[in-house]
Amino acid sequence: MSAGPRIPVPPLRLAALLSALVALLAALLTAQTGTAGAATGSVLRNDTGLYPRAIRLAHSGSANGRVLSSVVTFSGNNGLGAVYESTDSGGSFRQVGAVGDPEAAGGQGLCCSTLFELPRAIGGLPAGTLLWAASVGQDETNRRMALRVFKSDDVGRTWSFLSTIATAGSTGGLWEPESPSTPRGGWSRTTRTRPTRPTARS
């Protein structure tokens, strides 16, 4: 079966059709992306700030409602966890504390922190205790990375070492501790293991 004769499209009609298609495509792209509003709020840091985490306190008595945030940062070769507080629902923050782990000092490496508020008492830790954990040691020779936990009982102002919850059995990676709540309000720990580091400064 042979195709019928082609009917030429007049140049003006073709130009109008193309213009309509371009306009439709532009309208669709604009509808999908929209115009982003200007960012508001305050910058936590003007230098390195990795793995930001934020929690709204709900088990800390008179401090309930405050927003605490933490990031991994560096002072020279020393890894630090910087802790910030907002009393206006995140509109502004000020630094109130820092976690200084000797195992993350002197270029040993610090990465992948998390921040958690205990929803109820666990062992000797009362409800409202803050826990901060991170991966340390990724830049050591023949490394054996570890996940170390620090605690605060004064709404993030001061921090003390609590425990090492995991140590790598090889020179592979041990990254990104997280602190999900269990269905009964308890506390558990999850991590990721992989041979190479995440794509972030460590």
Entry summary:
This protein is mainly β and 202 residues long.
Topology:
Elements: H1 11-33, E1 50-56, E2 67-75, E3 78-86, E4 94-100, E5 110-117, E6 130-136, E7 146-152, E8 160-167, E9 175-178, E10 190-192
Antiparallel strand pairs: 1-2, 2-3, 3-4, 5-6, 6-7, 7-8, 9-10
Order of helices and strands: HEEEEEEEEEE
Give the rounded overall mean pLDDT.
Answer: 81
- Total strands: 10
Note poorly predicted spans.
198-202
Using the alpha-carbon principal axes, give the shape: elongated
Q: In percent terms, what proportion of residues is strand?
A: 25-35%
Helix/strand-derived class?
Answer: mainly beta
Amino- and carboxy-terminal Cα gap: 69 Å
Order of neighbouring strands in the sheet with most strands: 1-2-3-4
Radius of gyration equals 26 Å
Query: In DSSP terms, counting alpha (H) and pi (I) runs of 4 or more, how many helices?
Result: 1
Helix content: 10-25%
* Main sheet summary: 4 strands, antiparallel
Structure description:
By secondary structure, the protein is mainly β. Helix content is 11%, strand content 34%. Strands 1-2-3-4 form a four-stranded antiparallel sheet, with no helix packed on it. Strand 2 and strand 3 (78-86) form a beta hairpin. The protein starts with 10 loop residues before the first helix and ends in a 10-residue tail after the last strand. Mean pLDDT is 81; it is low at 198-202.
